[in-house]
Amino acid sequence: KQLVFSGVQPTGNLHLGNYLGAIRKFVALQANNDCIYCVVDMHALTAQLVHEDMPGQIRSITAAFLAAGIDPEKHIVFNQSAVPQHAELAWIFNCVARIGWMNRMTQFKDKAGKDREQASLGLYAYPSLMAADILVYRATHVPVGDDQKQHLELTRDIAMKFNLDYMEHIRRSGYGIDITVGDEPVHAYFPMVEPLIEGPAPRVMSLRDGTKKMSKSDASDLSRINLLDDEENISKKIRKAKTDPDGLPSEIAGLAGRPEADNLVGIYAALADRSKADILSEFGGQQFSVFKPALVDLAVHVLSPITGEMRRLMADPGHIDAILRDGSNRARARAEVTMKQVRDIIGFIY
Ligand code: AQP
């Protein structure tokens, strides 16, 4: 079985982008993999230090995982800060990663805004903690949205440099594994992670601006569909979603240069589990006044059972905390196996 790891930050209301780009894939991967899903609460400090209701946010992401269909008994669901080995490995990776690599991260540039000098050191180092989140379990597959692709490439670079710099120590330790990099066989400690980013809507865009990704932190609530939105809200947001005056094209090529139309078709396709081409063969030539109500119906059909179950779970915080405690205990035991080996490889006495 492959080992899958992924995480979501408790930084606000989960939205359709988080669901289609990440959580729905988490659910599908359970059938044939060993999965570890994490509420990455330490990442939530990178952009904003003080959170009004951190425990509530952590519980709400956990509830979304469970409501979407993640099984916390067969797999592991936990919150990052309860497993300190993530932070321990992140420090080592801070020393492995090069400043030049970090300077290329576009998400830092986007999130830091104009006054970069005022961004936290944590926001800058965030991809290194993300690499540690994954590699502390030596996970091989990471389902994420397209916005995280660059961070996964960095994770591979960090793993590769650790493997090369400590090559002799790894060989002597007996903890190594044989992997292939390109076509080359390599004796390594950390595997090369593979991103799982496919699907018709790998990046769900804002409903107000088809060139910006749908995001929890967008000031406009109309820009996103939240997983806790009711039917009326979903309907209002889709009706008000920005579009151009033309109808829907019959072929994919007709979506070029029309980011808002492309986004709505992508959302429909992802929700229906069909291709965009298939959706256009059904709706090509129709106006948005026909397409939008169909999209509302579909979104409500897919999301309302999840919303209902999330609300039910969130009414019992003790139950959610018990699931997190059990998951953290199991995650910590596995992460500690890796950290003991890493300390040996480096030469730390513990
Ligand atoms: N718009 C999106 N389309 C597809 N996938 C997305 N993801 C986020 N936005 C989209 C995926 O959701 C997972 C969890 O994201 P996260 O909470 O860890 O961080 P994020 O990427 O920073 O998410 P947001 O919503 O944009 O939050 P803020 O506004 O707080 O930064 C990831 O797998 C991500 O790819």
- What's the number of extended β-strand segments? 7
Using the coordinates above, name the CATH class of the largest domain: Alpha Beta
Q: How far apart lie the N and C ends?
A: 32 Å
Structural class label? mainly alpha
Strand content range: 5-15%
Which small-molecule species are bound to the chains here?
A: adenosine-5'-tetraphosphate
Helix content: 40-55%
**Relevant CATH superfamily of the largest domain:** HUPs
* Pattern of helices and strands: EHEHEHHHHEHHEEEHHHHH
Give the overall silhouette.
globular
Largest sheet: 3 strands, parallel
Low-pLDDT stretches: none
Number of folding domains? 2
Please give a structural write-up.
With about 350 residues, this protein is mainly alpha-helical. It folds into 2 domains: about 1-195 and about 315-345, Rossmann fold (3-Layer(aba) Sandwich), CATH 3.40.50.620; about 220-315, Tyrosyl-Transfer RNA Synthetase (Orthogonal Bundle), CATH 1.10.240. Helices cover about 50% and strands about 10% of the residues. The chain contains 13 helices and 7 strands. It has helices at about 15-30, 55-70, 85-95, 100-105, 105-110, 120-135, 150-165, 165-175, 230-240, 260-270, 275-285, 290-315, 315-345; strands at about 1-10, 35-40, 75-80, 140-145, 175-180, 185-190, 195. It has a 3-stranded parallel sheet. A two-stranded parallel ribbon has the order 4-7. Strand 5 (about 175-180) and strand 6 (about 185-190) form a beta hairpin. The longest helix has 30 residues, at about 315-345. The radius of gyration is 21 Å and the shape is globular. The model has no long low-confidence stretch (mean pLDDT about 95). The structure holds adenosine-5'-tetraphosphate.
